[in-house]
Design brief:
The protein is an alpha+beta fold. The protein has 4 domains: about 1-30; about 35-60; about 65-100; about 105-325, paralog of FGE (formylglycine-generating enzyme). The protein has 8 helices and 9 strands. The chain has helices spanning about 35-55, 65, 70-90, 95-100, 150-160, 190-200, 205-215, 230-235; strands spanning about 110-115, 115-120, 135-140, 145, 265-270, 285-290, 305-310, 320, 325. The strands form 3 sheets. A 4-stranded mixed beta sheet has the order 7-6-5-8. The longest helix is centred in the first third of the chain and has 23 residues, at about 35-55. It is elongated, with a radius of gyration of 35 Å. About 30% of the residues are buried.
Amino acid sequence: MNKVCPYCGHNRNTPWDDCCRRCGKSFFHPSLMPAAAKWLAVAAVLGGAYLLFAAKYGHKLPPAASRPAEYVKARATQLWREVGDRARFRHGFSPSIKQEKARHSGPRDGMAYIPAGTFRMGAPEENGVKNNCPVRQVSLTGFYMDINGVTAAEYAQCVAEGVCPAVTGPACNSANPARGNYPADCVTWHAAQAYCRWRGKTLPSGAQWETAARAGSADAYYFGADTRQLHRHIWYDRNSDGRTHPAGLLPPNGYGLRDMQGQIRQWVLDDYGQSCAGQNAPKGKYKILRGCHAAEDEEACRLSRVSKSEPGKSGVSIGFRCAAQ
């Protein structure tokens, strides 16, 4: 503590004196206070004035001004979560952000839940039927599958956003605005996956597709093995006039999914080389298609049937639907 009064130069009489006995002023002169102490004093004065003001007029102030501590804490928590979520999404670990990217649709909107479990896939190769995989058990976690295949109108939204490539060709539903409620077609595997990612989803794996399409059935078709009933459940060559129809006209399967069999073939995520039907195929050269087109026969529409196409190719018989966890 200073021994001389900064105002009049008089010496302090005792170490505990706070004021000069000659002039009566405080020994704590601002010039002798550290810079941090100065700002602390200023903050205390301003804070006191603010608290008096808020106490009198706080009901007229916005929340950020009337409750500064609560606002700062809430805002800091929000920013922390956003930074963490963005970092996790950058490395593919945050489904919440993927859902946020597709807020206009949401990964569960228009989808059916397929429960977890162990399922039977494939069928025995008999009576000359080909492109089957041996019967085997697969275990899957629960997931969601689009109730209907992606329609031409839905794909057109992706094109308008500049994410998906446009489709051309007079025979393609995707190129004809009047067929908006028909299944999207003439779409490559890459375009189909781009659409699903734009929606915050993905193409289903082959196991997911067959599990969802079977809906618990062990027969060739989701409703059973009686081919006399095909016309009631599946668009195929005997009831479709060889063309696709508006989505969702025929009854759904046990999971509520429509047009899984018939109507249009559907891209899945797997390489054809990963399937038992295409074990000798070069890896990455072909992608798998499941289901059948409306112009194909009953044998082609079996649930176990696996077909292939190069991922860069498309056609009027090829469409898709999306899945999500």
